[in-house]
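Regression test case RT-17, inverse folding.

Input:
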């Protein structure tokens, strides 16, 4: 578990503050028949130019889920191999370069929640279909939620999803081909490792649309490449090739074919899934806790494994080889 509170509390506070600054507002939803409220709520939110009062707009995940569910298209597939402990997430939105729709965001949230409970998992590989990784949010979806309130709700929800992805007890690997732009770049930055194709083009291009990263990508990018480089990449909206990503520390490995990726990934299969998960916990604690607390938690992880079945089996095997 993380030592610090997640981003949701801070983002919710910012949302309420923004609304208070805009003053008291009229109610967004008129009285509607109960039978058709759920299906029309999203249309009413999108169509209105008014701003809800702070009391109405306090973030509720269930309401945001309902809103996102009205914007379909595309799919995110999850496959888990119980024998190897390796899962695969495939982002697929044909004709949209795998841009996220609202329903795809919900699917990713559900898959991440499922993976967080997978006791035998060691790693998850995230990849886009048809030669591209992901190009952020689908333009049609974005245009229909282009208000401060709806944008904040979407940002809180997706930011929380990527924070949970980052904190999974599994190793997360982004298998990047083709375009990874905007929110797609934010997604790969939330992963532990990035294997990047020679065909890849990666960019935090939010500035070209007059916005900034809203899913936590700015924070993750800064942690990966340092604040100066992160500032330059976000402020310039520069698109990088694979070699430049490797030079800056945004990529961990550059490949030209899938067999090279498979060979590189084998390093994570040499030890038990239990040991891999322990290593991930230790690193997360070091990132999120102060020094003393991180040391305490590292000892706790060690105590869970020492003298366990796999430890004793390894000792027995080692003794037998002498």
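Golden output:
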């Amino acid at each position: 578990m993380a030592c610090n509170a997640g981003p949701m509390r801070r983002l919710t506070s910012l949302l309420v503050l923004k609304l208070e600054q805009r003053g008291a507002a009229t109610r967004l939803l008129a009285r509607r028949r109960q039978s058709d409220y759920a299906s029309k709520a999203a249309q009413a939110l999108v169509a209105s130019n008014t701003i809800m009062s702070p009391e109405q707009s306090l973030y509720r995940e269930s309401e945001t889920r309902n809103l996102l569910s009205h914007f379909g298209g595309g799919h995110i597939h999850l496959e888990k191999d119980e024998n190897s402990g390796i899962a695969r997430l495939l982002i697929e939105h044909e004709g949209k370069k795998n841009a996220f729709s609202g329903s795809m965001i919900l699917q990713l949230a559900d898959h991440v929640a499922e993976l967080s409970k997978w006791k035998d998992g060691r790693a998850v590989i995230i990849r886009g279909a048809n030669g591209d990784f992901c190009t952020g949010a689908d333009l049609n979806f974005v245009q229909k939620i282009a208000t401060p309130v709806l944008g904040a709700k979407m940002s809180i929800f997706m930011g929380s999803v990527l924070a949970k992805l980052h904190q999974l007890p599994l190793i997360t690997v982004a298998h990047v081909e083709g375009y990874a732009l905007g929110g797609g770049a934010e997604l790969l930055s939330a992963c532990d490792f990035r294997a990047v194709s020679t065909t890849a083009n990666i960019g935090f291009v939010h500035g070209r649309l007059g916005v900034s990263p809203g899913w936590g990508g700015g924070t993750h990018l800064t942690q990966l490449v340092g604040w100066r480089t992160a500032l330059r990449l976000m402020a310039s909206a520069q698109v990088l090739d694979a070699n430049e990503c490797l030079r800056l520390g945004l990529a961990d490995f550059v490949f030209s074919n899938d067999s090279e990726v498979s060979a590189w990934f084998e390093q994570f299969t040499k030890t038990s899934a239990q040991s891999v998960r322990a290593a991930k916990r230790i690193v997360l604690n070091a990132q999120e806790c102060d020094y003393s607390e991180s040391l305490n938690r590292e000892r706790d992880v060690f105590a869970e494994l020492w003298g366990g079945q796999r430890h004793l089996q390894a000792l027995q095997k080692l003794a037998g080889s002498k």
